[in-house]
Amino acid sequence: MSGKAHRQRLWRWRSNPLRRHEDVVEAWIVLVMWLVILVGGAIVWTVTARAADEEFAWERADRHALPAVLITDTLLDTNRAPAKVRWTAADGTIHTDRTEVPAGLASGATVTVWQDGTGHLTTEPTSGAEARAEALLFGGAAAAALTGLAYGTAALARWRLDRQRYEQWGAEWDAAGPRWDHKTG
Q1: What pLDDT is stored for residue 91 in this prediction?
Q2: CA pair distance 30, 27, nearest whole angstrom
Q3: Which pLDDT tens digit goes with each residue over 66-119?
Q4: What is the pTM for the complete model shown?
Q5: In Å, how far are 30, 122, 135, 155 from 149, measured between CA atoms?
Q6: Closest of 50, 59, 79 to residue 126, by C-alpha
Q7: Residue 20 near residue 165 (C-beta atoms within 8 A)
Q8: What is d(CA 185, CA 183) in angstroms, rounded to the nearest whole number?
Q9: CB atoms within 10 A of CB 13
């Protein structure tokens, strides 16, 4: 980068008779915005992805598969269909409930159902690879939300600074403009 381009890029930080207070404030706003986006985004992404990954791991540890018998037939027009199933719990008690099973099965067919730690039927837990991908997506979404918030806040603050500059320029023009209207002889 040439010295002139470097000086032009950092003009708000140098002492300059044309530099206004608003220029310094704007430079700080932009600097803080980028710090929040880069550092805060990385932190938010990491924390969110880890929390989601821990939640998925807990889900995989809490849920377990059980064989169940279909009590009702399922329809063929969908991939999965709600059906009534019966299964035997670990303590030997027989339970009946509704859950989604593969479509097109007749009553009496054996299916796999998933039960949580409290004994209620639930969905199959997210697999390890899928959980990692979803955790990364959740982290990315959280980082993107923080980026949007930081950028929007900075844009609003810069807009307010621009409004102040326009008002100052208007006041300066109101003071200087009438002197230019005099005709010279």
Answers
A1: 82
A2: 5
A3: 999 999 888 777 788 888 999 988 788 899 999 888 888 888 999 999 998 888
A4: 0.70
A5: 13, 36, 21, 10
A6: 59
A7: yes
A8: 6
A9: 13
